[in-house]
Design a protein that fits this description.
403 residues; Rossmann fold; 5-stranded mixed β-sheet; 24% strand; elongated; binds flavin mononucleotide; binds fe (ii) ion
């Protein structure tokens, strides 16, 4: 029995990728990432989503096919839910080995097959709701889910087993180390794994939260027994767990998020840090949890995840050359690009000559629909009076999040 079999007709070929190379050229994956390809066997055979041609991923796919008595030529259909190269990077080489397989994608997806890979033969653009009968009772249905994650994206449904091949949706960072299904992980392991799902969502999907909600609504009528994404765990015991996680994350985009505070801070010589310590005392006095992230030391991928999840933010940074401390300016720019909206935020910082950080901060957050706690700046080292004010500001932030 194939350990990665979902049903008699369906199995997963899961490749763990461990690399210091950044995912999408931005996001670190110190715990790895999986690329899942799926084999569907009827009278005809289909592969759903490919892999990147890196880190021997394509060799692993071919070996896995061989263990099932198949080679690449036995693939009749290649279904591409999404054309991003993490799922299609190997397409050209696949095509050379199997020129006959029909490549199936949405009309926009087929355009990308042509423009990214210069492949123009044996292509089939499918409409929303169109089906493909593989024989032996295995029928696939394609549903367009635009902007999950690119405009051309679709999902594939196999009704006999109730499996939804969701590609990036319901995916996560994190390699699986030889396991695959949610029921192979203990509840504490699943709980620990969720940080990978959250960071993946915050980094990759968060900008498209309204489309996550639309897709979940659109697919609500399906009797889903198994969620099979192209990154991370396959959810066959409790598929609603990952659907609920994604619904919760999508709701963070509309706010308010969790009752906790992401404290993001930077300081050249410790003056802002001293003031921040008083703010933290104020937060602690209200018993609200917070996480600490120093810039530029901490990677933006983790800062994004913490900020996305938290209802409250502290932005603590000094003035630097008449403007905001540059690593913090970068964080706010990423927040703007990644739609970190509807937070309650407190900005503090020290200055020495004539200030300037607050002005840049105000301009940076102008379009983010944040609620601001009255900011506080001071000159040089904070005085005892400054520290008292800062503590009160921290308390006010925590209180406003609790109510
Ligand atoms: C490289 C550098 C540039 C600075 N630029 C400004 C500035 O443009 N305007 C200002 O008011 N203070 C400026 N300062 C002073 C700092 O804002 C001030 O020393 C502040 O207390 C530093 O806080 P920190 O120790 O948390 O970094 C600058 C200091 C440094 C080291
Ligand atoms: Fe993607
Ligand atoms: Fe992906």
């Amino acid at each position: 029995m194939n350990p990665f079999a979902i049903s008699d007709a369906l199995s997963c070929i899961s490749v763990d990728v461990h690399t210091t190379e950044l995912f999408e050229g931005i996001w670190p994956t110190p715990e790895g990432v999986t690329l899942n390809t799926y084999l569907v066997k009827g009278k005809k055979n289909a592969l759903i989503d490919l892999v990147q041609d890196r880190h021997k991923a394509s060799d692993q796919v071919q070996t896995a096919l061989q263990t099932q008595g198949l080679d690449l030529k036995a693939v009749d259909y290649l279904i591409l839910n999404h054309l991003e190269p993490d799922h299609t990077g190997w397409l050209k080489q696949f095509r050379e080995k199997n020129p006959q397989a029909e490549i199936i994608a949405t009309p926009k997806g087929i355009n990308l097959v042509k423009s990214f890979y210069n492949i123009n033969e044996n292509l089939r653009a499918v409409k929303d709701g169109e089906t493909l009968d593989l024989g032996n009772g295995t029928v696939l249905t394609f549903f367009e889910t635009p902007n999950l994650h690119w405009p051309e994206t679709m999902v594939t449904w196999e009704g006999a087993s109730g499996t939804l091949f969701s590609c990036d949706a319901f995916g996560s960072f994190g390699a699986l180390g030889g396991r695959l299904f949610d029921d192979e992980f203990s509840p504490p392991e699943l709980q620990a794994f969720e940080k990978n799902t959250l960071r993946y969502y915050a980094n990759i999907v968060a900008s498209f939260s309204p489309f996550v909600e639309k897709a979940i609504q659109k697919l609500a009528g399906l009797n889903i027994a198994c969620i099979a994404p192209s990154h991370g765990l396959v959810w066959r015991k409790n598929p609603s767990a990952v659907i609920q996680q994604y619904q919760r994350y999508a709701s963070y985009s509309k706010g308010p998020a969790e009752q906790e505070i992401a404290v993001i801070w930077g300081s050249m010589y410790g003056n802002t840090k001293q003031g921040l310590e008083a703010v933290l005392e104020g937060i602690e006095s209200e018993g609200l949890p917070y996480s600490l992230h120093r810039v530029p030391d901490d990677n933006i991928s983790y800062i994004l995840a913490a900020a996305f999840k938290s209802a409250g933010l502290v932005i603590a940074a000094p003035t630097y050359e008449y403007a905001l401390f540059p690593p913090m300016a970068y964080v706010l720019d990423i927040f703007r690009r990644k739609h970190i909206h509807r937070k309650t935020a407190l900005r503090i910082g020290s200055w020495g000559w004539s200030g300037g950080a607050q002005k840049e901060y105000d301009a940076s957050i102008a379009g983010l629909s944040w609620t601001s706690i009255e900011p506080f700046e001071w000159v040089g080292v904070p005085s005892p009076q400054d520290l008292e004010i800062l503590k009160n500001r921290g308390r006010a932030l925590a209180q406003s999040i609790k109510t």
